[in-house]
Design brief:
Strands 3, 4, 5, 6, 9, 10, 11, 14 and 15 form a 9-stranded antiparallel beta sheet that branches. Strands 1, 2, 7, 8, 16, 17 and 18 form a 7-stranded mixed beta sheet that branches. With 273 residues, this protein is α+β, with helices and mostly antiparallel strands. Helix content is 16%, strand content 39%. It has helices spanning 2-31, 240-243, 251-260; strands spanning 37-48, 51-52, 60-61, 67-84, 89-91, 98-102, 110-112, 117-118, 120-129, 162-169, 175-182, 185-190, 194-199, 203-206, 212-214, 219-227, 265-267, 271-272. It is built from 3 helices and 18 strands. Strand 1 (37-48) and strand 2 (51-52) form a beta hairpin. It has 2 domains: 1-33; 37-272. The longest helix is centred in the first third of the chain and has 30 residues, at 2-31. It starts with a helix and ends with a strand.
Length: 273
């Protein structure tokens, strides 16, 4: 009798165990879906007249006829956004929404997004040149090199958007330094001591010819080129002899630079990894 009694009990245990196994087996499939995303990297390069910059060499002439050289370029971009062909947009800010680029530091010239980007066709890429007002807070960078980009508190605080440093031959045919810097501008009651208001000089860049297709598991690399000569020529002819070596407290000059920034950046052919 005991043997006959145990057999149904054992059968019930077997059915229950099989059910749990089947349930967990199905669950493992739903927890490991097939991937549907890829990755994106931006690589920054810097050119004059379609050639990589030769730094510290007085070989360039801008549209105003100034002979000049470039020592270094440092800047921030932020809020990179992808525009999908279906009309949606994707802000890439999962891990890092502000990126620093420095021509003296090769490691800063690659912006590797950790965001998982859905496969598909993207019509364009845009970004903010500089840092938006709501994000541009003093002391948010405590370590160099980013901390060296601070913008003086009495001039609005936060950080430079751009440092483009070099030299030009002035009207006396002497080498003179220029600091072509962008950041928060000032409107003065009385220059240079009494500020009436501040001007946010960051601007939005839509990269021309930046459409791309992204396949599952693919990393797309896009070269973002700063065409330095365009800071000085379109739509405003920028003359170092007229504007001098420093523009930080000259909002009317920074405004010219912002207007010229519309076509400073271009995108190059995408590559694959």
């Amino acid at each position: 009798m005991d043997k006959l009694f145990r057999q149904p009990i054992q059968l019930l245990y077997f059915i229950a165990f099989a059910g749990v196994f089947a349930f967990t087996g199905c669950g493992s499939k739903t927890n490991n879906p097939e991937p549907t995303t890829g990755k994106l990297t931006l690589h920054f390069s810097h050119k004059i007249d379609n050639e990589p910059i030769v730094f510290d060499d007085m070989r360039y002439v801008n549209a105003a006829g100034n002979h000049y050289l470039v020592n270094e370029i440092q800047y921030f971009i932020s809020d990179v956004t992808l525009y999908h062909s279906n009309g949606t947009s994707l802000l890439l800010d999962q891990w890092e929404d502000i990126h620093y680029v420095d021509t003296d530091l090769p490691e800063t010239q690659n912006y590797i997004f950790k965001d998982e980007i859905p496969q598909g066709t993207y019509d364009s890429i845009s970004f903010t040149f500089g840092i938006s007002e709501e994000k541009n807070h003093s002391l948010m960078f405590v370590n160099p090199p980013e901390s060296f980009m601070f913008w003086p508190e009495n001039l609005g605080g936060g950080y430079h958007y751009l440092k483009l440093n070099g030299k030009w031959f002035n009207e006396l045919d002497q080498e003179a330094p220029f600091n072509f810097h962008l950041g928060i501008g000032q409107i003065y009651f009385s220059y240079p001591d009494s500020v009436s208001s501040f001007v946010q000089n960051y601007f939005r860049v839509i990269l021309p010819a930046s459409a791309f297709n992204l396949a599952v598991g693919e990393t797309k690399s896009v070269e973002v080129i700063m065409n330095v000569e365009n800071w000085f020529q379109s739509p405003n002819i920028y003359n170092h002899n007229t504007h001098g070596g420093d523009i930080m407290q000259k909002q009317h000059v920074m405004a010219l630079a912002v207007e010229n920034g519309w076509n400073v950046f271009t995108a190059n052919t995408m590559t694959y990894k």
